[in-house]
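Lecture notes, unit on protein representations.

Consider one protein chain, 681 amino acids long.
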Amino acid sequence: MRVELSAGLSGQYLSWDCGAEQSIYHVRVMLNPSDAAGGALTIINGRSATGDQMFALRFDADARQVTCVLATSDQITADLPPTLDWHCVEIAIDTARDAATMWINGIEAASISASLSGLAAREFRIGGMDGDPALTGSVFCDEWIVATHYVGPVFAPATPDHAGDPRRWLVLYNTNNPDSIAWADQYRQRRGVPYANLVAVAYGSDEDMSIPELLSLRADVADYLARHTISETMRGIMIGYGVPGSVRFGPPINAIVLGVASYLSDLTNDLSGLANPHFLTGVVDVSDLPPRASLGSGSAYLVAEMNAPTRALADALSDRADQLRTIGPDGHARSALDPAIDQFTASQTTGTWLENLAFIDTPAFKRVRLPSRTDWDPLAEGHGHAIELSDERLGAMVNTGQRAALLVAGAGLTADEVRSGDQLVRRALDHGYAFAFGTIATVSPGAMVNPAAMLAALRAGWTWAEAVAVSVPAIHDDWRAIGDPLATLPLPEAGWDVCGPFESWAQVDLEYPSITLPAGPSNISLDGADQPPDDRDSIYIVRQLDDLGRPEAGLTHTRRHRVGTSLFIPPVPSVYPAVSGWSAKQVDDQWRITAVWPARFASMHVQRVELIEQQSGQAEQIVDAITVDARGWQLTFMRPPAGDTVRYRIRAISADGVEVDGPWSAWLKLIADEARSLVVI
């Protein structure tokens, strides 16, 4: 509903009579202030059976506030977060309990206790009423509901049953930080997160929160999930820009620090170091991953942070992630990392970390089309590789010209501070990395992140948050995963690129392969748009890629012919005749027609050859057919004259019955003077 505002606005509304006075009622509306200015107006009111106004919900366009004014002269007021377009406003009046409550975007914003026994309402109105004289612009109202129970925000149904669906994520933002609110709205639009999934929290500007604040945050998030009955729908919780990401307590020196993110994973248990049910140990390949739908279900939510020193850098995390992939015409994401330049590096160490790094020497890793290096000293040479697994917590960042994709720090004391300080994760953000993982406290060998599991999940096309979920051994621990949790990081892999189908060589485009295969398979099945058009042949280009993802210099191509749902190898047409208007030779008042193939008939998939004849003004017909010798490579037909003028073409037929017609000859006419041989008409 659009309400156009004008001076003295008094009565533009829709009304609903519920048939009897209600002593308990909730009224919910989605409100968009749009460009309203110049004062306040009533957008919703409730009236008794006798027509007396029991309450009025007024919106002040200049102050961006909503106020519920009761007939008892009591009122409750709440601010609308700036920069957000739509707001879920809900007012509840319980005359039996003498209580009135207001929720903004699913969070209780204000309430009062007063004598409200006379405020039962029967008729409810929505629109523009009792406007101030200077009002201009418009406001929009939508999703108006009157009920006898809490309604809450409008949640979009989640379709994919995994954490890659933005509708399965709660996004926390800080209402005390205008940049945090603006970031939340920008991120919502970018990734498709519903309004109802934006959860407002209120903190100061510090990077840390206190232990009581952490416990309060966990309780508030758990309450939001339970009150809106979305505990089973949600898969992840995101700490947005401006929300503190760490907890610091104790004396200023040697203070104890905790990571907020990990303590939001399990909201039902306060114990630290809980085993992560999604964790995968040892060397992990894509085939070892659990069902994607199992991640984030149950009591362990996926959690990640979009924290950064500035709002611009927080936005840049999503930009960087998107720049690490390209979206082909088929809609699939492919890696933008350059296999000839970008490197995957891992520092040498001992224990569990080294065990997991053994992944880079396995055939599974060899399909990740990046050069790997393990003889690298991050202290001497500096950090800054495209993908880096480091057990160091020090060392300079060096710009080597590579894409900065992912830095995983296995050492402790690498992520105490993200908005300030000079630790490895903060350096990675400043250096241009899209994703960075580190820990706060000293890490014991059994608590080290498993980089093999993380890379396997990324190779499978899972999101950053899902990759973290399978690689950390414990929750309620001190790890911090910085980066866009809904972004993916496609990795170049060794194997095969298949480009096609193309109807001609002029259409060949090798930039976006239709199918990318690992090195193992020797054949593929073509489905959907990857198949040739029905009853047509198409060209496919096949290129092998080495361990670095670099294509071979040459090209291998094949043709396929589709009939219904079946694919056949079509016969190769002759190389002569190969163009329209070819000529035949007149020999003893007959036409001698010769066809030549580039190789033996067996390799050309030719089993039978037919000669098609067409006399001037007549329909074409088959006039001769030869079952070929598989070892041969050419054929000759002799044809007596037929009519005044005639033309011919060659038809090759495979063992599967696929036919390929060659071009028509010129129109031919026999003449008596054999020295002239023929005339092409």
